[in-house]
Each structure stands twice: as structure tokens, then as C-alpha cells.
Sequence to fold (112 residues):
Amino acid sequence: MNPAKVARSKVRSLTGLPNIGPAMARDLEFIGILKPEHLKGKDPVELYETLCRKSKTRHDPCVLNVFISVTRFMGGEEPKPWWAYTEERKGITESKSKVGRPGSRKSGEAEG
Fold:
């Protein structure tokens, strides 16, 4: 649903959430999210990785934006369009891609 049209008090179904249409609702159901309340406290990165793993498909990174938007909304934030989370998502995916590269360090490791 368009974030500008979301009324928090009226959200009863997944398609009532900001940025969620029928296809994204099916993706959420596929990973066990059957109603909006199931998103409370969920990690959007874990949701995205679960979807990719279960579907055996690397989904567009913008799906992670959508998962960030709906988990934040269910955590009490105002609804925002999915693209408002692009910079945050890029930061998340960039930091994850550096982990395990030769010469990269894990948090807390000293330089040698």
C-alpha cells in the first residue's frame, strides 16, 4: 500500500502495510509472516536472507528496503516509501560484503 494512505489503526492484513502489495505479501507469507504483528521485532536482513534461501533466488536488494520499511513501521515509526531506506540498505549490504574479504577484520580484531 502507498505509505501516504496507510492508517496504522486500520492495518489488519499484510497488504495494508506500507509498500506491500499482493506479490510482496505472498513473499512474506512464504517465509512465515502471516499477519502484520509477526513483523514486530524482526530483523529485516534476516527476513531478506530467509526469503532468498527458501526461494533459492537472490532477490532484488530493494526487497530489503521494503522489509526495513515494514519492520520499522511495525516498530512504531511513521510509514515511508521503500526508497527512503536505500542509503541504509546500501550501508548494510556494503558492510556485509566486506566481511570475510582477504585483509578485512572482524569487529574487535586488532591490526597486525
Residues 62-74 form the longest helix (13 residues). The helical segments are 22-30, 44-55, 62-74, 86-98. Confidence is low (pLDDT under 50) at residues 100-112.
